Amino acid sequence: MTRLERFLLPLAGPAAAIIIWQAVAWSGIYPRYLFPWPADVVLGLSQQIKNGALWEHIGVSLYRFSGGYLAAAATGVPLGLLLGWSRRLWAAADPLVQVLRPISPIAWLPLVTLWFGIGDLPAMVIIFMAAFYPILLGTVTAVKNVDPVYLKVAQNFGAPGRHILWRVVIPAAFPYITMGLHIALGTAWVFLVAGEMMGVRSGLGFLIIDARNSMETGLVVAAMLIIGLLGLTIDRMFAWLEGKAHRRWGAAR
């Protein structure tokens, strides 16, 4: 693939989508106030940029996302290490985890609002719930799948259990723990919008609801595109960090 192709091919998909979008808009299937034109999206986005509101919404959303996701990582990774290391603890916890895991964070929204009121905290709790189980299960799986040869070698050298955990199991499992963190990143970002649709007056989720109530469909689509672009940026940044972790700990991609 030539350098020109590497530059142009990623632009081909978005360009085709915009052309199809404009063609559907011109067809008149939906009135313009229900199905915005690309120009309406650009206009809505430019207005938000000019008045500075867009940067405020982005900053608040990133703050909530970071708080919820980091809390899930700080809880899920140590707990996953503990449960993955102890078969008895995992046997006791597994049924509870498997019952709670399929419950969508959206189902918790009414209770979360009642328990934590309104503001940033409920949105962070929803993000925490979305990220916690992928991180927990990814860590448990990573620990349980450590090559038994590593453990036998450490035991043959007389290493105590806590040293085996910290010096053998965690380094061996770490590249695969990052995979769970990566999966949880995308899941948590998806539920960011849901967490911001109740009880808050800022953020990208609130911007979508507020624009819908005002029938500014161009702004609705603009906010959706911003969410997608931010999600792509965060994902690529984490993928870069994940690649460094894999190289550092000697795991082949």
Keywords:
mainly alpha; MetI-like fold; 253 residues; globular
- Please report which band the strand proportion falls in: under 5%, 5-15%, 15-25%, 25-35%, 35-45% or over 45%: under 5%
The total strand number stands at 0
Stretches with pLDDT under 50, minimum 5 residues: none
Cα-based radius of gyration, to the nearest Å:
23 Å
Largest sheet: none
Helix content: over 70%
CATH architecture: Orthogonal Bundle
Helix count?
10
Would you give an account of this structure?
- The protein has 253 residues and is mostly helical.
- The protein has one domain: MetI-like fold.
- It is 81% helix and 0% strand.
- It is built from 10 helices and no strands.
- It has helices spanning 3-27, 38-50, 53-85, 87-100, 109-116, 120-144, 148-156, 161-195, 204-213, 217-248.
- It is globular and about 75 Å long.
- The two termini are 22 Å apart.
Task: Provide a brief overview of the structure.
This protein is mostly helical. The protein is built from ten helices and no strands.
Set out the fold topology.
Blueprint: H1 3-27, H2 38-50, H3 53-85, H4 87-100, H5 109-116, H6 120-144, H7 148-156, H8 161-195, H9 204-213, H10 217-248
